[in-house]
Design brief:
Largest sheet: 7 strands, mixed
Order of helices and strands: HEHHEEEHEHEEH
CATH superfamily: Gcn5-related N-acetyltransferase (GNAT)
CATH class: Alpha Beta
Distance between the termini: 31 Å
Helix content: 25-40%
Structural class: alpha+beta
Strand order of the largest sheet: 1-2-3-4-5-7-6
Radius of gyration: 15 Å
Bound molecules: coenzyme A
CATH topology: Aminopeptidase
């Protein structure tokens, strides 16, 4: 992994995961634009902040936004709609911390499955999801702007619950 180091432990110790507010959006949008060719706009994030079905959180490092994740839970299905980490902080365990948070939150909300779509070219993200037990379930051909395919992945949360029960 690039850029990761023992500093990663220190960085994670200084992080809290908290609800995203509109005051965070300048920092969130800067990360979003640095990470994605077709970035979400401010209104997309506002819609998730106020949504009854979604939880938008940030990883806050001493008041600086290190990353964020948008989770939607509808009945027993959870979906990671967006996750990104400030590129200068990649490789410090922050993405993993955010995705692990989404697993716990989904269980708390009584979801039994968690899904996501990811660009087939996003090797770091796919590796992260596989590490946390997501499995590929299908493709959407030419789903993204430049013809990139989407890989569909999901994780059975019942397994996650059993892991924490023992
Ligand atoms: C995907 C992303 C969120 C990962 O965040 P991160 O904080 O850099 O990742 P972490 O340091 O928590 O890494 C956790 C695991 O992810 C995988 N990983 C992360 N970066 C990787 C890389 N460059 N190459 C291979 N695997 C990688 C590894 O499995 C790693 O575990 P390890 O440290 O035991 O090897 C980050 O790369 C990102 O913001 N990418 C751009 C946005 C994006 O693609 N989002 C996903 C949309 S679906």
């Amino acid at each position: 992994m690039p850029q990761g180091s023992n500093n990663g432990i220190l960085v994670r110790q200084m992080l809290i995961i908290r609800k995203m507010t509109e005051d965070d959006l300048d920092a969130v949008l800067a990360i979003e634009q640095a990470c994605f060719p077709r970035a979400w706009i401010k209104e997309h994030f506002i819609a998730e902040i106020v949504s009854d079905y979604g939880t938008a959180v940030v990883a806050d490092k001493d008041g600086q936004i290190a990353g964020y994740l948008i989770l939607s839970v509808l009945f027993d299905e959870a979906e990671i709609l967006n996750v990104a980490v400030n590129p200068v902080l990649h490789g410090n365990g922050i993405g993993e911390m955010l995705v692990r948070w989404s697993l716990k939150e989904s269980l708390k909300e009584r979801a039994t499955i968690i899904r996501l779509e990811v660009r087939t070219t996003s090797f770091p993200a796919i590796t992260l999801y596989k590490k946390l037990g997501f499995i590929p379930t299908g493709f959407r051909k030419s789903y993204y702007e430049n013809g990139t395919d989407a890989l569909l992945m999901e994780k059975n949360l019942a397994e996650e619950e059993m892991l924490h029960a023992v």
